[in-house]
Specification:
heterodimer, A: about 110 residues, mainly beta, seven-stranded mixed β-sheet, four-stranded antiparallel β-sheet, globular, B: about 120 residues, 11 strands
C-alpha cells in the first residue's frame, strides 16, 4: 500500500497569512493526488484533484502543486472559514489511501 | 444538484452486521463508481472499497475482505455497504462518495452514517 504522510499535523495562522501543507507519498504517484477539506461534523469536500486542478466552486485562494512523491496545498490568504482539517489522498493505485490530516486553526 | 443521501445512525452489538444505504440523485447512477470511506471519532479517513453500479464489480481493501459487501439497486439509484462481524473498533462514521473516473477523486460525499458497536 502507498503511505501518505502530511506535515505539519496542525498549524495556527492569522487571517491573511499564506499557509502551506505538505503531503509526501511513499512511492511515485505521478500527479494522482487529491486534497479535501473537512469541517467538524461534516463530510469531506474536494478542493483539488490531479495535484493542481481546482474543483469547481472552490475559492481561488486554494492551489495545489507537485508531482512524483512531494505535493503541497497552499492557501494564499487564510480566511476564518478555512478553519478545518485538510487531507491528501493518492489515486494512483488501490487501496486509495489518505494522509493523516492537517488541522488548520485561524487565530 | 448531485447529491448522496445516506441512511440513519445505527447501534449494533458485537458480532452483528450493519447495512448502510446511499441514495444518489442529480446524475445517472450507473455512470460513476461509489466508494465507501470510514472515519473513527477523532481519526483520519480510511477507504473501504468501491463498486461499479453498472456492472456490480467491486474492489475491497484487503483489511475488509471477507467482512464487507457492496451492492446496489439500480431501479432506485441506491448503493449499499454491509459490514459483518462487527467489533468495537468498527465504531465510526461511514461515508459513501461518488468516484470521478478520470482522477479517482471523491465528489460529492454523503452526509455520513454513524455506526456504533456496543454491547
Amino acid at each position: 500500500d502507498i503511505q501518505m504522510t502530511q506535515s505539519p499535523s496542525s498549524l495556527s495562522a492569522s487571517v491573511g497569512d499564506r499557509v502551506t501543507i505538505t503531503c509526501r507519498a511513499s512511492q511515485s504517484i505521478s500527479r494522482y493526488l487529491n486534497w479535501y477539506q473537512q469541517k467538524p461534523g461534516k463530510a469531506p469536500n474536494l478542493l483539488i484533484y490531479a495535484a493542481s486542478s481546482l474543483q469547481s466552486g472552490v475559492a481561488s485562494r486554494f492551489s495545489g502543486s507537485g508531482s512524483g512523491t512531494d505535493f503541497t496545498l497552499t492557501i494564499s490568504s487564510l480566511q476564518p472559514e478555512d478553519s478545518a482539517t485538510y487531507y491528501c489522498q493518492q489515486s494512483y493505485s488501490t487501496p486509495w489511501t489518505f494522509g493523516q490530516g492537517t488541522r488548520v486553526e485561524v487565530k | 444538484q448531485v447529491q448522496l443521501v445516506q441512511s440513519g445512525a445505527e447501534v449494533k452489538k458485537p458480532g452483528a452486521s450493519v447495512k448502510v444505504s446511499c441514495k444518489a440523485s442529480g446524475y445517472t447512477f450507473t455512470t460513476y463508481d461509489i466508494n465507501w470511506v470510514r472515519q473513527a471519532t477523532g481519526q483520519g479517513l480510511e477507504w473501504m472499497g468501491w463498486m461499479n453500479p453498472n456492472s456490480g464489480n467491486t474492489d475491497y481493501a484487503q483489511k475488509f475482505q471477507g467482512r464487507v459487501t457492496m451492492t446496489r439497486n439500480i431501479s432506485i439509484s441506491t448503493a449499499y455497504m454491509e459490514l459483518s462481524g462487527l467489533r468495537s473498533e468498527d465504531t465510526a462514521v461511514y461515508y459513501c462518495a461518488r468516484g470521478l473516473a478520470t482522477d479517482n477523486c471523491f465528489d460529492p460525499w454523503g452526509q455520513g452514517t454513524l455506526v456504533t458497536v456496543s454491547s
